[in-house]
């Protein structure tokens, strides 16, 4: 009887020793970094080792493996594909075209401008992402968020400082590709958290086959498909087939992780992450492929990494502010002992 009448101490969830969940936005972002860098190195290794100079074919392998992987996951019951109407299916078609067009414009623009100029313009993707989000989605960003982008953009400029040669058409295509990249990131986020709320694998299942068909069409239009078929008759090997298959599997996991990270974070966070990944690719190129960089490039790499960390800190602080419950201004401030006594009284009266 005494045991029943005695009030039990209040169990607060904040102080409980629950294991940390691995399913967090930053864990998915970390996986995105790892897989993105892995695929970048793997692509360079394939191009250099096997002399496989067919970027559209490589993209087609990525989309095909992504579609097959998503289908297998659906058959295993990992997710249930949503029932979409005619309008939603049209959205998927337009999204897949945007996905493929973004790759096409980026590849074409690289033939008209230098790599350094291409990277600097692509570094402006967060700026376009903010502009699109503010103009069309009525989003608001704090002054600290804008400020955190400054060292990031300056750092990418310094890291890629070099030959900034470009043509008028190349300049237009590079800027267009950057705008399309920002739109793609924003649309990806809206499809997953908006009215459709598609599972990342569901989005991949619907988008990949369409993108694969469009990639094959682009490859045929540019003449790459014919060249690849002719090349494969004499230079295709079993080791290359295995390497391309592994490359496609990595691409599937990267697409899945990328979509999930986009859903759990934001479009702006993903564009900032892509910028930091680009600089980390330079670091890896220096260590693995023995690429030489100057003092200004090295300083830019350090500044970009600091800028990325600064943005992450600002983003984490802003999310904490939104998650914190509002406290009435006139609420009395109680001491720890008074709060404990008040909670024990409430429990004992129940």
Automatic annotation (TrEMBL):
It is found in: Membrane. Residues 29-312 form the Sugar phosphate transporter domain. Residues 1-22 are annotated as: Disordered. The chain crosses the membrane at residues 26-42, 54-78, 90-110, 166-183, 203-221, 241-259, 266-289, 295-314. It is a multi-pass membrane protein. Signal peptide: none annotated. One of its GO terms (cellular component) is membrane. Keywords: Membrane, Transmembrane, Transmembrane helix. PANTHER family: SOLUTE CARRIER FAMILY 35. This is UAA transporter. It comes from Entomortierella chlamydospora. The lineage of its organism: Eukaryota, Fungi, Fungi incertae sedis, Mucoromycota, Mortierellomycotina.
């Amino acid at each position: 009887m005494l045991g029943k009448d005695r009030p039990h101490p209040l169990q607060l969830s904040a102080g409980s020793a629950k294991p940390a969940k691995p399913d967090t936005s930053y864990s998915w972002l970390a996986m995105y970094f790892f897989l993105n860098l892995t695929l970048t190195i793997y692509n360079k290794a394939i191009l250099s080792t096997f002399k496989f100079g067919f970027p559209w074919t490589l993209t087609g392998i990525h989309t095909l493996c992504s579609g097959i992987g998503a289908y297998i996951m659906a058959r295993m019951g990992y997710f249930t594909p949503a029932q979409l109407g005619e309008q939603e299916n049209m959205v998927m078609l337009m999204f897949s075209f945007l996905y493929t067009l973004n790759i096409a414009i980026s590849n074409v623009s690289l033939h008209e401008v230098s790599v350094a100029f291409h990277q600097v313009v692509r570094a402006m993707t967060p700026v376009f992402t903010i502009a699109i989000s503010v103009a069309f989605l009525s989003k608001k960003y704090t002054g600290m968020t804008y400020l955190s982008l400054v060292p990031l953009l300056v750092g990418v400029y310094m890291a890629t400082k070099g030959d900034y040669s470009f043509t008028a058409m190349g300049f237009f295509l590079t800027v267009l590709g950057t705008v399309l990249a920002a739109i793609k990131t924003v649309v990806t986020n809206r499809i997953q958290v908006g009215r459709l709320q598609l599972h990342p694998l569901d989005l991949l299942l619907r988008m990949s086959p369409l993108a694969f068909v469009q990639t094959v069409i682009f490859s045929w239009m540019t003449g790459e498909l014919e060249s690849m078929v002719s090349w494969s008759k004499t230079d295709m090997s079993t080791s290359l087939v295995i390497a391309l298959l592994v490359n496609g599997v990595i691409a599937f996991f990267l697409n899945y992780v990328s979509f999930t990270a986009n859903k759990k974070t934001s479009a702006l966070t993903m564009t900032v992450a892509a910028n930091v990944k680009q600089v980390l690719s330079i670091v890896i190129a220096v260590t693995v492929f023995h690429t030489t960089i100057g003092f200004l490039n090295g300083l830019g790499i350090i500044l970009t990494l600091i800028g990325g960390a600064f943005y992450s800190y600002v983003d984490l602080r802003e999310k904490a502010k939104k998650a914190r419950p509002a406290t009435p201004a006139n609420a009395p401030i109680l001491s720890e002992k008074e709060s404990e006594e008040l909670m024990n009284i409430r429990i004992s009266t129940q």
